[in-house]
Write a structure and sequence with these properties.
Elements (H helix, E strand, L loop, with lengths): L9 H12 L4 E5 L5 E7 L2 E8 L6 H17 L18 E5 L2 E9 L4 E2 L8 H18 L30 H16 L1 H4 L4 E4 L8 E3 L8 E4 L6 E4 H12 L6 H15 L4 H28 L4 H4 L2 H12 L3 H11 L8 H9 L5 H4 L8 E3 L12 H5 L1 H14 L4 E4 L14 E4 L2 E4 L2 E2 L2 E4 L5 E3 L4 E9 L6 E9 L4 E9 L1 H5 L6 E2 L4 E4 L13 E6 L12 E2 L4 H7 L4 H4 L12 H11 L14 E5 L2 E4 L4 E4 L12 H11 L11 H11 L6 E7 L2 H16 L4 E4 L8 H4 L3 H4 L11 E4 L14 H18 L6 E4 L2 E2 L5 E2 L4 H11 L3 E5 L14 H4 L6 E4 L10 E6 H7 L13 H16 L2 H22 L3 E7 L2 E6 L8 H13 L2 E2 L1 E3 L5 E4 L7 H15 L2 H4 L2
Parallel strand pairs: 11-12, 27-39, 29-30, 29-31, 31-34, 34-35
Antiparallel strand pairs: 1-2, 2-3, 3-5, 4-5, 6-8, 7-10, 8-9, 12-16, 13-14, 15-24, 16-23, 17-22, 18-19, 18-21, 19-20, 20-23, 25-26, 26-27, 28-36, 32-33, 35-36, 37-38, 38-41, 40-41
Helix pairs in contact: 3-6, 3-7, 4-8, 6-7, 6-8, 7-11, 8-10, 8-11, 20-29, 21-29, 22-28, 25-26, 30-32
Length: 1008
């Protein structure tokens, strides 16, 4: 604040308010660069802002501001701009004397809202509304004139060249960045000065933008403080708005686009203006960092002036790394123009000129293609491991070529692919980790040493060995200049020798040989093919050019890189990037039962699995923390291969002798206590629990089952009958008479908490035993998961299971450990959940994680239980224990051992649990963290332990935004469950924690 106002108190401001406006109010000091600003409350409600200007402030400047606000209010009320209040003398600018010096005073209406920099998160919709509001102000001011509007102002972007005098204040690295933007700005002054001009706001910074109180769908309420308004190029105002809003973002270009779209929706931009926007955003940031550098010297104690220095430098450096041309094309696309200005011109030229494949490959002499689909949902590529086996992939290409000898195998333009596993294809963006997955050229799959010829005259502009795994290898780019059009063609995966025979600047004639196709590894480790791509710009690339783009940028990339088939006009290519998710959704609704649910507010169209990730139809990867059934990783190569090999040989029922079933039995029994020595194989966890109930009946002649509240044990009639999660839930009809439910043994929000919890919950089981006996019935059995999953990842109190098992056995009943979700190493410390509690059940049920999702499950029991069950009635399950399922399950068990996945579950699980517990110190709504190994949960509650279901749902959907799949459970849907594939790594866990912390810091999550 100006030093003259250093001692100006709130009481002084209240006296001024009364003196000038006859208003009684309470004043609170606010920050300001020049003016002394005070918030005025009347009857406890924010009503006005009192602004006291420094002495000798130009009256014309203040008149300019008040006339401008009046103009806006009259022109467009939806802008919600501050209104100037007449003083008691009916003027808009009052005069007062402070310390014998004259000052001007204005009183403006207060506008409620949150300051922009206090809002979190700032999503596309909010950025759009910022641009929208900014555009409305520009529209309202487009016909406003005032003599003071054309003034000298350091903050006017058009006058920014004054900053050149202060380059010496920066380090050498900083100076390079600043000089780049200043040089660009200086170079286009002649055409820049011809752009449209108007009075504009000129300062939509963090503190001048007010946002609504809505925490899940906030909108910009108002843009305030017109103190820096000036008549300048209109595009400058949008650049300023973008410059401030892109601070503290991972992808500033992506952030700016929503603002541009919003601005253009209310004030239409011209194509010419967009050419300058990238540099002008940089220039505004240059002014900001220059001002900060000066003020650090002149006024080091003024924190207001230094407030945006660090984020300004961060975003300026980041902005410099963005291609100016790519930004320009992105802005054009955002405004509804063709992203590349020559795209339409190229299409028209290509329409009138046709080229043949035999011109590109004269030695092949084929002019038709057979489309090869290598998209993310293609079955031709097979598993990633198979694709990376280049000998195998090339063999498949050769076999396919034999089927279509008169065609060239080709495809790939705009194809979403999951083939690019190198980290070179990844980045961190506004939506979390992102991968380049959309192919920008056409691949022609031809033998190594195939010559490639030029389709038209050109000049060599790139000729390099782009070495590295999944790079281009030998790369050539030709520049082609036509009368009104320049474009480029790219030739990737060639021999180094054929590329290095050319020099930059060499001229190539149409029909001349350009390159020769290489084999792996020389070609970047691919099966031999030509990557052929057309570009209308090289952007700023000198020795490379992307052959794959990010999905969220694809509208821009496909304009920069038009379809090469425009040249050939060949039939047979498949159209890519068609979103069929709505069609699938409609078909589900039409053909499938309504009780089948979908995850997320916007369901995902998942087409591929890859270890810890699920991949959608556009190649977007999602880190999976939910699907425990994919026990050893989605589409585990060894498991898939075992199933494929056995499926090709035999799949039949277990009435025939086959070694797979006995091999699996031995492998499984090795992991179990010796008491559990007999196995029965079925197809699912539900079937396993159904069979276990039959065994209880056969052994005890009783079907009286004791189970936990909120327990879930399957979807068959008998398993639903013992699943409180189902019969006590929506659509349920309550428990059957022979099912007896005790309170869920929850130590956090359950019936009992504190000391002796295990005994208290065990006593509840004893009460049910006594009740059964009083009815002159026998106890049949007891079933529980070692960690109750659907009930909310509830860990059983230590000692509870041991005591309950003894009570059940004393009553003549059998004990079932439902290991469907927690078994096969997931607990980390133990292979089976019951082992964690130091008990041995009579029956263990095992579900589909045993088959990595393939339909195989098992029931393990004691010999005594098995013999009583074998009462003469044959147990036969047509495909329970079939050779394919057993081969797969065998491989799953081997993978758990081979890759030490139980140990991994312990290490990664303990890290995750520890980090989640650390989060509870910062975020008190995390009431409890529980679980073992990679079967964890954390519960969101108010201080009074009431559930935070809405926040849980919000968290899940926001984590999906960052590419991480999470899910909730528990009776109140307020428990986040974490049960990923056991291949989940420490890096995966760190990523989850990082983004959880980001979401917990968001306004909706922090609001009570």
């Amino acid at each position: 604040m100006n030093t003259i106002f250093k001692n100006l108190s709130s009481k002084n401001a209240e006296n001024i308010l009364l003196q000038c406006y006859s208003i009684v109010g309470t004043a609170t000091k606010l920050p300001g660069e020049l003016d002394a600003n005070f918030k005025i409350k009347i009857d406890g409600k924010s009503s006005y802002i009192l602004k006291i200007s420094p002495e000798n402030t130009d009256f014309d400047e203040l008149d300019f501001q008040v006339q401008m606000l009046s103009h806006i209010s009259a022109k467009e009320k939806s802008i919600n701009a501050p209104r100037c209040i007449l003083d008691k003398n009916k003027v808009l600018i009052s005069k007062i004397s402070l310390n014998n010096k004259n000052h001007s005073v204005r009183l403006l209406t207060w506008i409620n809202g949150r300051i922009w920099n206090s809002v979190n998160p700032k999503l596309k919709e909010l950025n759009f509304s910022l641009g929208e509001k900014n555009g409305k102000i520009t529209r309202a001011l487009s016909d406003f004139e005032h003599p003071f509007s054309e003034r000298k102002l350091d903050w006017d972007t058009a006058q920014a060249l004054w900053t050149k005098n202060y380059l010496h204040l920066f380090s050498s690295d900083e100076e390079k960045v600043v000089s780049y933007f200043l040089n660009q700005f200086e170079s286009f002054q002649k055409s820049y000065k011809k752009l449209r001009k108007s009075v504009v706001h000129n300062d939509a910074n963090d503190n001048n933008v007010l946002v609504s109180e809505n925490l899940t769908n906030p909108k910009v309420n108002a843009i305030i403080d017109f103190g820096d308004a000036v008549k300048t190029q209109i595009i400058n105002d949008l650049a300023i708005t973008c410059a401030y809003a892109i601070m503290d973002t991972e992808d500033p270009l992506e952030t700016s686009l929503a603002i541009v779209i919003g601005y253009h929706s209310t004030f239409q931009l011209e194509e010419k203006e967009l050419e300058f926007l990238y540099t002008l955003i940089g220039i505004r940031l240059v002014i900001s960092v220059t001002k900060s550098a000066i003020n650090k010297i002149e006024n080091p104690k003024n924190k207001y002036l230094l407030i945006s220095e660090k984020p300004a430098w961060e975003v300026l450096r980041k902005w410099r790394t963005i291609s100016a041309n790519f930004a320009h094309y992105s802005f054009r696309n955002a405004c509804g123009f063709e992203a590349h200005p020559n795209h339409h011109k190229f299409k028209n030229w290509a329409k009138n000129n046709t080229f043949s494949l035999s011109e590109l490959f004269p030695t092949i002499n084929r002019n038709q293609i057979h489309h090869l689909d290598l998209s993310v949902s293609s079955t031709f590529t097979g598993h990633q491991e198979e694709f990376n086996n280049l000998d195998l992939f090339q063999f498949k290409i050769v076999q396919l070529q034999k089927q279509v000898p008169d065609k060239i195998i080709a495809g790939g333009y705009l194809e979403p692919r999951a083939l690019y596993t190198s980290t070179e294809y990844d980045t961190i963006g506004n939506y979390g980790r992102q991968s380049r997955s959309i192919h920008l050229g056409i691949d022609f799959w031809l033998p190594a040493n195939t010559p490639v010829h030029a389709l038209f005259d050109g000049e060599i502009v790139i000729a390099v060995n782009d070495e590295g795994d999944k790079e281009y290898g030998g790369l050539i780019v030709l520049k082609h200049e036509l009368k009104e059009l320049t474009f480029y063609t790219l030739y990737g995966h060639n021999t180094i020798e054929s590329v290095q025979q050319h020099a930059i600047g060499d001229l190539i004639k149409k029909g001349e040989q350009v390159t020769v196709l290489a084999n792996y590894p020389e070609n970047g480790n691919w099966a031999p093919h030509l990557h052929f791509q057309v570009m209308l710009s090289l952007l700023e690339y000198k020795n490379d050019f992307p052959g794959v783009g990010y999905f969220h940028q694809i509208d821009v990339w496909k304009s920069i890189c038009p379809n090469p088939n425009l040249l050939f006009k060949l039939a047979g290519f498949k159209e890519n990037l068609i979103d069929v998710s709505q069609t699938i959704l409609n078909e589900r609704k039409q053909h499938l039962g309504k009780s089948l649910s979908l995850q997320y507010q916007q369901p995902l169209h998942i087409v591929k699995g890859a270890n810890q990730h699920l991949i959608d139809a556009f190649g977007n990867k999602f880190l999976d923390t939910v699907n425990n059934v994919a026990h050893v990783g989605h589409e585990n190569f060894n498991v898939v291969k075992a199933g494929q090999q056995q499926m090709a040989l035999l799949n039949t029922n277990s009435r025939y002798l086959h070694k797979n079933i006995t091999t699996l039995a031995k492998e499984l029994l090795e992991t179990l206590p010796e008491e559990l020595s007999v196995l029965h194989f079925v197809n699912s966890g539900s079937e396993a629990n159904e069979l276990a109930i039959r065994m209880i009946k056969a052994n005890t002649n009783s079907d009286e089952i004791i189970a936990s509240e909120h327990g879930y044990h399957g979807n068959t009639n008998k398993t639903i009958a013992i699943s409180s999660y189902k019969f006590d839930g929506k659509g349920g009809k309550g428990k059957p008479q022979n099912t007896h439910i005790f309170p869920i043994p929850d130590t956090f929000r359950g019936k009992y908490r504190g000391e002796d919890i295990a005994k208290k919950y065990a006593k509840e089981v004893q009460l049910l035993i006594d009740k059964i006996h009083k009815q002159h019935k026998k106890v049949g059995g007891f079933i529980i998961e070692p960690i109750i999953s659907c009930g909310g990842q509830i860990e059983l109190p230590q000692g509870f299971l041991k005591e309950v098992y003894q009570k059940i056995k004393n009553a003549g009943g059998l004990c079932i450990s439902d290991e469907v979700q927690v078994g096969v190493g997931r607990m980390g410390k133990t292979f089976w959940g019951f082992q964690f509690h130091d008990v041995v059940p009579d029956i263990v049920t095992i579900g589909k994680p045993l088959g990595n999702g393939h339909p195989i499950a098992a029931v393990a029991c004691t010999k005594k239980v098995a013999e009583k069950f074998a009462n003469g009635m044959e147990f036969f399950n047509t495909f329970g224990g079939n050779p394919v399922s057993c081969a797969i399950a065998n491989e799953v068990l081997k993978e758990v051992k081979r890759k030490k996945l139980q140990e991994n579950a312990l290490k990664v699980g303990e890290y995750l649990k520890s980090e989640l517990q650390n989060l509870t110190k910062k975020y008190t709504i995390i009431g409890d963290v529980r679980g073992q190994g990679l079967f964890l949960g954390f519960e969101l509650v108010y201080k009074n332990l009431n559930p935070l279901s809405e926040k849980t749902d919000y968290l899940i959907n926001r984590m999906k935004y960052y590419g991480i799949l999470m899910s909730s459970d528990g009776p109140d849907r307020n428990v986040i469950k974490i049960k990923p594939p056991l291949t989940f790594t420490l890096e995966n866990a760190k990523e989850v924690i990082f983004y959880l912390e980001k979401v917990f810091d968001e306004d909706f999550m922090k609001h009570n």
